[in-house]
Amino acid sequence: MAKFRIVHYMNQFFAGIGGEDKADLPPEVHEGVMGPGVGLQAALGDEYEIAATVICGDNYFGENLDQATDAVIEMVKQYTPDVFVAGPAFNAGRYGVACGTICKAVEERLGIPVITGMYVENPGADMFRKDVIIVETKNSAASMRQTLPTLSALIKKMANKEEILGPKEEGYLERGIRVNYFAEKRGSERAVEMLVKKLKGEPYQTDLVMPVFDRVDPAPPIKDIKKAKLAVVTSGGIVPQGNPDHIESSNATRWGKYDITGMERLSAEQFTTIHGGYDRQFAMANPNVVVPLDALRELEKAGEFGELVNYFCTTTGTGTATASAAKFGTEIGKMLVEDHVDGVLLVST
Q: 4, 27, 117, 128: which is closest to 73 by C-alpha?
């Protein structure tokens, strides 16, 4: 009896090729099993075969999205798999975005069932949970052994074209998909039961989980702008040449802090932009159009505000998950409070 064929995608780290030093690795394909594929193959059993492993560096994929996706699609196509699996990526942001991107592309272009795995706060989870099935994992690869049974069970169902039940039954992230079903009790009975449990302080499960909207109270106005210490924070991707902190051009999982002590303006020889969501030519020629250090120095000298803090903070906003953005804001805000900053200029692009 022929075995079900699986193609497995992973990044350079999980493939055992290297870390950040190998993050620029272009896509390549290897016959058989590599890295976490060994454990996955064992969990799947003899009726399933990981025919090939496709590898791509996180930086290469993020910076060459279209080319990398096209190349991986061609590699997957060679093996005509029954199921395509990526990751799991756990809480690795760049890896998660790559897994989600390539899963969606394989499903749409090749019509092959796809699956991946991520921690709920991975940026890729927010971006792709409506498009592909994402097995819910913990935040690190230390939970690989707990993840593989759930992942392998769903792969088997996909290969055998069996019905996949809801996220709670199968262990994947909510996708926001509604389906009709016949409940044992009518809606009015369930509603009364939920109300009674809520009044008693007992746990209950609503039929329709509502979204939670974050509300932030506005900060009080600056009392005296003439004495205020100000800072610049941008999502416009302005970084030193070479992008030393490897901030992604989209779907950012990190931010940077860069010194501007003694600088009257940002020089194009020293700074550039890595943002993937706008025409960068003007910002590359003159970074001050995004981080207006030149104008701020003039205002500072004119006494329009007290002083400018000696650094600016930067990331990219394109496609960045809300959870990541909130994390950046909390980290940057804590630092600014410790540096006695009175106000922040959040410059737009």
A: 27
Q: pLDDT of 320-339, one tens digit each?
A: 777 788 889 999 999 999 99
Report residue 140 as tokens. 């690190």
Phi, psi angle pair for 74, to nearest 5°: -65, -40
Residue 264 CB contacts under 8 Å (≥ 6 apart), including other chains: 293, 294, 297
- pLDDT higher than 70, residue 60: yes
Q: In a 10 Å sphere around its CB, with 0-12 CB exposed, 13-18 middle and 19+ buried, how is residue 126 labelled?
A: buried
Partner residues linked to 347 by β-bridges: 234
Q: How far is CA 142 from the centre of its chain?
A: 19
Amino acid (one-letter) located at 15: A
| 44 CB-near residues (< 8 Å, 6+ apart) | 6, 50, 152, 155, 156
Return the SS3 of 52: strand
CB atoms within 10 A of CB 216: 7
Give me 142's structure tokens.
Answer: 């230390």
Summarised one tens digit per residue, pLDDT across range 267-280 is 999 999 999 778 88
What pLDDT, in 10s, does the model give residues 106-156? 999 999 999 999 998 888 888 899 999 999 999 888 899 999 999 999 999
Threshold 0.70, pTM exceeds:
no
The phi and psi torsions of 335 (rounded to 5 degrees) equal: -65, -40
Integer Cα distance of 175 and 165 in angstroms: 12
Give the sheet arrangement for strand 229-234, strand by strand: 256-259, 307-314, 229-234, 343-347
